From TrEMBL:
Matching PANTHER family: IRON TRANSPORT SYSTEM ATP-BINDING PROTEIN HI_0361-RELATED, METAL TRANSPORT SYSTEM ATP-BINDING PROTEIN TM_0124-RELATED
Source superkingdom: Bacteria
Keyword Acyltransferase among UniProt keywords: no
Domain ABC transporter: start-end pairs: 20-255
Pfam families for this protein: ABC_tran
Protein name, entry field: Putative ABC transporter ATP-binding protein
One record GO biological process: zinc ion transport
Record-stated family: Belongs to the ABC transporter superfamily.
Signal peptide: none
A GO molecular-function descriptor: ATP binding
Assigned keywords, A-Z: ATP-binding, Ion transport, Nucleotide-binding, Transport, Zinc, Zinc transport
Transmembrane segment boundaries: none
Comp. bias regions, Basic residues: 312-323
Length: 323
């Protein structure tokens, strides 16, 4: 029988089996809202993929469909070559939720939250065995939260809570990890720690799909990008997909894009122009000539939907601090 591990070996580095394959999926809610229409994309194993779109573009709905909470009215989803149902049975998929989705008043210890990741590996009585305790300890250590094991989850900071839910996914030994806005409410240091961890998981051949509004971090750590607006506007390697034209199509008037002139520059960058592209969180910032390639017109807030030639985004050299 094929195991997840053997699949991952086959697929490591993008070749071989797809990590997630979404084929022509349409999902509608009972009230008649069609949140996803004809959505298709594939993600190879051993990759991190950004899921980018405005509020209401269908990101959470897509996560729910991949988790099997919502059934596609049309199309199919496969995970590591299995149906969603089989993938869930084999505990291959984990979900790291947005902070708002969790009731933080629920009295539960950090180690208990992480142990929930082991439920799929236990029998019906859910009595943890040695290997379950070891998995929990290992997962907490990996996210640097060992000293918080006996704390109530509600007492932690936003970034610490995020790390606990990541630890739950690790304790589960999930091969496919869906992360809903993992950087919201976390400081830059924690964000960097999470990114380092995700890169390590990628190198183990796992699959990560990350919804984010932090456009600045996408080219830094996401190999691939899926742009969503009820349907897929574009999907593929980030250097090809994360373009100015595509971001405008994705965000429309929500996107703010402006260039500060070279004479003024920014702190630490005198004489360099600064290009800023942002929806609502951390902007994508480019200093100097690379930024000028994006726009020849300085000091202009641009929110028009006018199409411009497709140009790859240059890699940012520095990002602005979080406000
Ligand atoms: N339970 C529901 N019942 C009916 N419609 C819903 C439900 N949940 C979401 N929707 C609708 O489906 C569409 C997609 O919503 P979804 O939550 O997937 O977007 P999103 O991209 O995750 O947004 P955000 O960035 O704000 O989290 C929206 O029009 C939303 O109003």
């Amino acid at each position: 029988m094929k195991t997840a591990a053997s699949d991952l070996e086959e697929g490591h580095g993008g070749a071989g089996l797809d990590g997630i394959a979404v084929d022509d999926v349409t999902v509608s809610y009972r009230n008649g809202t069609t949140a996803l229409r004809d959505v298709s994309f594939t993600i190879p194993t051993g990759t991190i993929t950004a899921l980018v779109g405005v509020n209401g573009s269908g990101k959470s709905t897509l996560f729910k469909a991949i988790m099997g909470f919502l059934r596609a009215g049309k199309g199919s989803i496969s995970i590591l070559g299995r149906s969603v149902r089989d993938a869930l049975k084999e505990t291959l998929v984990a979900y790291v939720p947005q902070a708002e989705e969790v009731d933080w008043n629920f009295p539960v210890l950090v180690e208990d939250v992480v142990m929930m990741g082991r439920y799929g590996h236990m029998n019906m009585l859910r009595i943890p065995r040695k290997r379950d305790h070891e998995a929990v300890a290992g997962a907490l250590a990996r996210v640097n939260m060992t000293e918080f094991a006996k704390r109530q989850i509600g007492e932690l900071s936003g970034g610490q809570k995020k790390r606990v839910f990541l630890a739950r996914a690790l304790a589960q030994d999930a091969q496919v990890i869906l992360l809903d806005e993992p950087f919201t409410g976390v400081d830059v240091k924690t964000e960097e720690a999470i990114i380092r961890l995700l890169k390590g998981l990628r190198d183990e051949g796992r699959v990560m799909l990350v919804s984010t509004h932090n456009l600045g971090s996408v080219p830094e750590f996401c190999d691939r990008t899926v742009l969503l607006k009820q349907t897929v506007l574009d999907a593929g390697p980030t250097p090809e997909v994360f373009t100015e034209e595509n971001l405008r199509r994705t965000f429309g008037g929500v996107l703010r894009h402006f260039v500060l002139p070279g004479e003024r520059g920014a702190d630490g960058h005198p004489g360099e122009s600064v290009t800023v592209i942002s929806d609502d969180e951390r902007p994508f910032v480019v200093y100097g000539d690379e930024g000028e390639e994006l726009s020849a017109k300085p000091v202009k807030a641009r929110t028009s939907k006018k199409e411009t030639p497709k140009k790859p985004m240059p890699k940012p050299r520095r990002r602005t601090p979080r406000t």
